[in-house]
Amino acid sequence: MSIAETGVIDIWGVPSCGNTVELIIADHLDWEPSSEAAHLLLLQEKINTYISFIESGEINTSIPAAAGKKPVIRVVGQHALSRLAEAFAKQVEAVLRDAGIEFDFVLKQS
Fold this sequence. Notes:
The structure is a single chain. This protein has 110 residues and is α/β, with parallel strands linked by helices. It has one domain (11-107). It is 37% helix and 23% strand. It has helices at residues 36-55, 58-62, 83-98, and strands at 11-13, 20-27, 70-77, 102-107. Strands 1-2-3-4 form a 4-stranded mixed beta sheet. A hairpin with a 6-residue loop joins strand 1 (11-13) and strand 2 (20-27). 21% of the residues are buried. The mean pLDDT is 96.
C-alpha cells in the first residue's frame, strides 16, 4: 500500500496503551518542485479517503478495537516536507483538530 493508492487505508494500528487508533499513510514520494503539485493532490485525496473512513463509521466496523478511541491520521514520509507541503500539513492539522481527528507527519528514519 502507498500514497498512490488513494482509495485504500495503508496501515492501521491500535496501540496497547493510550486511547487512539492510528491510521498510517505510507508516503514514499519526494517533494521535487516538478512533482510537488501532483504529490499534494495525491496526499489530499488519500487524507479524504481516511476522513471518509472515520466519519462514515466504517472505522468501527473494520477495526472493532477502534470504538471509542481518538483517530490519528499519520503520514509517514521518506522525504522531508517542502515548504508548501509543510503549510498544507499545518492547515490539514488545524481543520482535522476541529473535527476531533489528530493529524501529523513523521519523517521515516533510514
